[in-house]
Structures are given as C-alpha cells and as structure tokens.
Hints:
Blueprint: H1 2-8, H2 17-24, H3 28-40, E1 44-48, E2 52-57, H4 64-68, E3 80-86, H5 89-97, E4 108-115, E5 133-139, H6 148-167, E6 172-174, E7 178-181, E8 184-196, E9 199-209, H7 220-223, H8 229-233, H9 239-258, H10 263-272, E10 279-283, E11 288-296, E12 302-305, E13 311-314, E14 318-320
The structure holds biotinyl-5-AMP.
Amino acid sequence: xxxxxxxxxxxxxxxxxxxxxxxxxxxxxxxxxxxxxxxxxxxxxxxxxxxxxxxxxxxxxxxxxxxxxxxxxxxxxxxxxxxxxxxxxxxxxxxxxxxxxxxxxxxxxxxxxxxxxxxxxxxxxxxxxxxxxxxxxxxxxxxxxxxxxxxxxxxxxxxxxxxxxxxxxxxxxxxxxxxxxxxxxxxxxxxxxxxxxxxxxxxxxxxxxxxxxxxxxxxxxxxxxxxxxxxxxxxxxxxxxxxxxxxxxxxxxxxxxxxxxxxxxxxxxxxxxxxxxxxxxxxxxxxxxxxxxxxxxxxxxxxxxxxxxxxxxxxxxxxxx
Length: 321
Ligand code: BT5
C-alpha cells in the first residue's frame, strides 16, 4: 500500500490526503499511517493540514520500488528481495534458488544495504559497508556447466559498460572476476552454481561494487589496492541509477549468452581487458604459474604462455600482484 501511495505522491506539489484516500479506496487515517511507513523508510515527506502531502526527497536506499521505477529490463530485477542487512546476498540467493516452485522467476535479485559476512572466492572476505551495491542475481540458464566462466566474464563486461555509461569512468577487467579503475579494485564477482545431469540447475551471480565508500573506511590491508566510484569521480553517485544501468546491460549480454553468442561479448571483454598481454603470476591453488597472458578462448579460459613457450589453459585461479 505504501508503494501505491508513492505512485500518487508528487515532488514539489501537494496532493491532498482526501484525494489519495479516494484513489486508493482507503480512509484518510489509513493514508496517514502509510505516510508514516514511508517516512520510516527515509522518504522525506512534508505534510500540510490544508494542502496534504508533498514528497521532498527519495531515500538513498536500494529499495525495490526505486529500482523498478524506470527500469527498462524485461525480466532481470522484476522480482527484488531487499534487506537492510544480510550475512551475504549469495547465501540468501542460494537458499531461494533451491526453491523449485520459484524456479520460473529468472533474474530475481537479492539486495542488501550491508553484508555482515560478505564472501569473496575461496572463502575470502568481502568488505561490504553501507554505500556499496551488494547484490545477487538468480538465473536458470539452459546451458552446460562449462558456461560458468563465460557467465562471470559476461557479468564483468556488463559492470564495465554500466560504469562507463552512467559515470563516464573507464574501468578494466582483471581475469576472471575483478573490475579495476587505475589498477585498483572497484568490483568483485562471485559466481556459484548447482548442476544436474550436465546442465546448470541454477546460477547465483554475486556482484559487489564499491560506490559511495570513502577509501579510509576500507580495512587497512586492502586500502592500497581498492577504490570506489565516489573516490574516483570525487562525488556521490546515484546507486539506484547505476544499478538500473547495470541490470539493463546485464540482461542484454545474458540474452546473447543464452543464444550461445559469446564471440561478441568476448570481443568487448578483450577491449576492456587488464590481463591480456601482461606477464602474470597465477595462483592455481596447488601451484603458482608464471607466464604471459596471451589469450582468452571462446570458453572463457585464460591461455598462459610460459617462458619455455608451453601454453597452459587456466580455467580458474587468482592473478597475484
Ligand atoms: C571477489 O572475490 O572479488 C568476489 C566478491 C563478490 C562480492 C559480492 S557482494 C554481493 C555478493 N554476496 C557476497 O557475499 N559476495 C558477493 P575474490 O576475487 O576472492 O576477492 C576477495 C578479495 O578482495 C579479498 O580477499 C580482499 O583482498 C579484497 N576485498 C575485500 N573486500 C573488498 C572490497 N569491498 N573492495 C575491493 N576489494 C575487496
């Protein structure tokens, strides 16, 4: 109901309580109650006994109604579960993904303002205070598990594109899952999946973007290698607008991937690559390999050329500094 009231409230213009009550078929007291709910959600609303209610400002929160207003996707973000705080949006998304009854809802989002136990890859921690975009997307692609690397690469391209379109800031992709600005990490992606009979059952893509976070608020050990969009641009960025831009880009690339049209995505990935052509050290868990990153192939696999000329295929790993 509070959402319905929001539709009829106007900025810089009063709407009377009586009109709102009539349109929505509720009492004026009920309207007043809903207005209090909106105020508790940090909407600034002034009230005047004679004139009614006027919306002064929207909260700087990633509320579903704020995101969905003006969202031009067909299905990504049509269902959003919003939380002021979660341990990890990926954990909650995985619980939801398991519910077969909800399986039809592709592109459901889990969003939290803060995460108390945000996750990186391999059990690493992801620092997630208020001011960032911390979200997970649930997908059910009819693809084989070998597509998982391509899904991560595609997500990174969508992040870079959205940042570019909305803030004009250029960023780069460090294989496989980091987005960097001036060598510093601004976004990380954590893709998790469950498979069944050589098909993907569900995929949860966790995306963390440092938006309005001051650099000195990051833990000391990561400050040197980390940045935020606010830090780079010198101003606060609308998280809602950036997220809308990202979801639109994401759906566009995901549609291509579902049709197995990865070549054009890979082309863009290469354009934004921070990795190709560099001599790198890759931690593969059991060993560290050194070589030149010569190619990312059509499966999203990194090809490393060792000093002796041997070519090594790397499906997953972490590039060391
Ligand atoms: C990642 O892991 O980069 C994946 C991060 C995914 C985060 C999202 S947020 C929404 C969703 N829910 C979750 O719980 N996770 C996902 P990895 O490549 O392993 O990098 C982790 C490393 O990045 C850490 O060990 C730190 O060194 C560094 N780090 C931690 N927090 C950071 C931050 N906010 N910004 C930049 N670097 C960070």
